[in-house]
Specification:
heterodimer, A: mainly alpha, ABC transporter involved in vitamin B12 uptake, BtuC, two-stranded antiparallel ribbon, 15 helices, B: mainly alpha, two-stranded antiparallel sheet, 13 helices
């Protein structure tokens, strides 16, 4: 019988630190911690798709864009409450994720990578074509803006709820089906798992998570949704976050989110090379090094440590 | 293994059915004929097509580099375009130091070869047998790293590397054909033929093919598999360098984002042709180059939907043939 005590204990400890943080940090650092929360949601969603159902996506920045634009446009046109727009972003991206998941059924591996990559490249181009509704290059400004502490609270509350939801989904029938599909599609089919249902469901859930992250992302940039914010680089960052966290486990996600959320910001102040270039050099180098040292990410490291403690 | 006798059997052995192969070749011939008729009918169509073929050759070169690495390592090297951009900057620097264009060209190819080989040994080899996703992420990290390094050394402002073919053009029956485009096509095709011959006719090439297809069996008969994979990365970097150097004059300027759009199209070209098919990569590159130029020339009002449109067509083709036009269907043992 497996003991839940260490897992529960660490969750309570992390939650306690997160509740205390806004009272201890400066406003700027609270906004950084909120960024980590936003990436937490997105990386968690991508991990459900790539880590548990085995389908790679280099296109989740596109779902973040759709979620973000949902928030900005609803706020601009209807002055909708921002929390309601987050729920809408969740719902819209869930449906769109299911729809994208359908053609994705035909592809796997590098081919699926290209299809989702196409999504990441294409979606930020759409506002340029339909500029009256989607705001063109100038972007969409929502009418309500919120403080850093508000975003921090919203981001980590969403993280907590969605983490619980992910845990519930993954420990039950759907989670077992996802893992079976990942490990062997043929064996899963032979055991009576409907491939198309579970593969599209994984796409829908992870897209919905990305949608919520996108909504928060737009709120954090003063309620401003802009095509350049959702470039291919964002999609790549999410994949980096998921790999650094460790695929197929929920216990490294905090580390993965902190890695992509904090490192580019912190390394801007590295004295070596100056501003933006220094950031890219340090971030790129760290990505390569972390993957060389921890090919299974932080979750792999935790698992190894746990085995050490047992032995 | 049964004996393979006719070309048809060869196709079957590659997992391509007779009917399906015929359809692909008929469609490609029809497309080529349409282009030919269009070129004869309209000078504008002809000049767009020539431009598309030249730019498409550069996409094809980069796509071939992706395919070489995919066959050997089973990952897409997302840093391939940035590597090509970096080597183009190296050529720029050599010209600044006083070398002539062609001296710098060949010196750059040598540097690219060493760089590709060194990268495989230093950062790909340690992860490639442990985790596919980790290998992919390493190439993504390399993408960001190279971008940062180039911005750091050369800055983000525009540089110009003079085209070796000048700005003159020929007049062929009323159609203006720039020397540049003919030169691009010629140089890319020459390097593709050299790489093909190397793989097809030399002992090292045989070793590289063996190492990519059956690593265990190859090492049993004495092939140094790890070194062959490193050489493969070297040759891929050379092809990328050629593609970058030839693509640069068509864009008229050199910036750190030079190859990002090209990588998108090269990726699309490699998948369109079939990720394990070198010939398919070149055909795919040409097809995408021509398609994008014609689309931009005739439908300028959708210019911002250029990339989405190209991808929509690609997706439609992939839905019918999920492993590309010439790709082998993946068969897995349970």
């Amino acid at each position: 019988m497996r003991s839940h005590v260490p897992a529960l204990g660490s969750i309570v400890a992390v939650a306690g630190v997160l509740v205390a943080l806004p009272f201890l940090l400066s406003s700027y650092n609270v906004s950084l911690a909120a960024q980590v929360g936003i990436y937490f949601v997105a990386v968690l969603g991508l991990n459900i798709l790539t880590g548990y159902s085995g389908q790679i996506s280099i296109g989740h920045g596109a779902f973040m864009a759709i979620g973000g634009y949902t928030t900005a446009i609803m706020s601009r046109d209807h002055h909708t409450n921002l929390v309601v727009t987050m729920l809408m972003a969740f719902a819209i991206c869930f449906v769109l994720g299911l729809i994208v998941g359908l053609p994705a059924l035909r592809f796997s591996g590098a081919y699926l990578a290209l299809v989702t990559f196409a999504l990441a490249v294409s979606v930020p181009e759409l506002p340029l074509q339909w500029s009256t509704f989607l705001g063109g290059t100038g972007g969409v400004q929502s009418t309500t803006t919120v403080s850093d502490r508000w975003i921090y609270g919203a981001a980590w509350t969403a993280s907590a709820i969605l983490f619980l939801l992910a845990w519930l989904i993954l420990r039950g029938r759907a989670g077992r089906a996802f893992r079976a599909v990942r490990d062997s599609e043929i064996a899963a089919t032979a055991s009576g798992i409907e491939l198309s249902v579970y593969k599209t469901l994984a796409f829908g859930i992870s897209a919905a998570y990305a949608g919520v992250a996108g909504a928060l992302f737009v709120m954090a940039t003063n309620g401003f949704a802009q095509p350049t914010e959702f470039s291919v680089i964002l999609s790549l960052q999410l994949l980096i976050g998921a790999a650094v966290a460790g695929l197929g486990s929920l216990w490294g996600i905090l580390a993965g989110a902190a890695f992509v959320g904090l490192l580019p910001k912190v390394s801007t102040s590295v004295p070596l090379t100056g501003t933006d270039h220094g950031r890219d050099v340090v971030f790129g180098l760290m990505v390569v090094l972390v993957m060389l040292v921890l090919p299974e990410g932080f979750a792999g490291l935790l698992a190894r440590l746990k085995a050490l403690v047992r032995a | 293994m049964e004996a393979v006798t006719s070309p048809l059997d060869l196709l079957r052995a590659r997992g391509i059915g007779f009917g399906s192969a015929i359809v692909v070749y008929v469609l490609l011939t029809a497309a080529a004929l349409t282009l030919l008729v269009g070129c004869l009918a309209s000078a504008r169509f002809a000049s767009l097509t020539v431009q598309g073929v030249a730019v498409g050759a550069a996409y094809g070169g980069l796509a071939l580099a992706l395919v070489l690495i995919y066959r050997a390592t089973h990952v897409i090297n997302y840093a391939q375009g940035e590597l090509a951009m970096l080597t183009t900057y190296v050529a720029y620097q050599l010209v600044q130091w006083g070398l002539s264009y062609w001296e710098a060209f060949f010196a750059t190819l040598a540097i690219a070869f060493l760089l590709g080989t060194a990268l495989q040994v230093a950062i790909i080899r340690p992860v490639q047998h442990r985790s596919v996703i980790a290998t992919v992420i390493v190439t993504v990290g390399l993408f960001i790293l190279i971008d940062g390094i180039v911005n750091w050394i050369w800055g983000a402002d525009i540089k110009v590397l003079q085209s070796p073919f000048g700005t003159a053009s020929w007049d062929v029956g009323g159609v203006e054909i720039q020397h540049l485009y003919v030169g691009m096509l010629g140089v890319v095709f020459a390097s593709v033929v050299v790489v093909w011959a190397l793989f097809r006719f030399t002992k090292v090439g045989l070793g590289m093919r063996a190492a990519a297809l059956r690593p265990a069996a190859a090492s049993l008969v004495g092939v140094r598999v790890e070194w062959m994979l490193a050489l493969g990365w070297g040759f891929a970097a050379v092809l990328g360098a050629v593609a970058g150097l030839m693509y640069e004059p068509s864009q008229l300027l050199l910036t750190p984002t030079l190859m990002q759009q090209a990588l998108v199209f090269a990726f699309a070209a490699a998948v369109l042709g079939g990720l394990d098919s070198p010939g398919g990569a070149v055909v795919g590159g040409l097809a995408i180059g021509v398609f994008v130029e014609l689309l931009g020339g005739y439908l300028p009002q959708v210019i911002s939907l250029n990339v989405p449109f190209a991808f929509a067509v690609l997706l439609a083709i992939l839905l019918v043939k999920p492993s590309g036009l010439f790709g082998r269907r993946e068969v897995s043992r349970v």
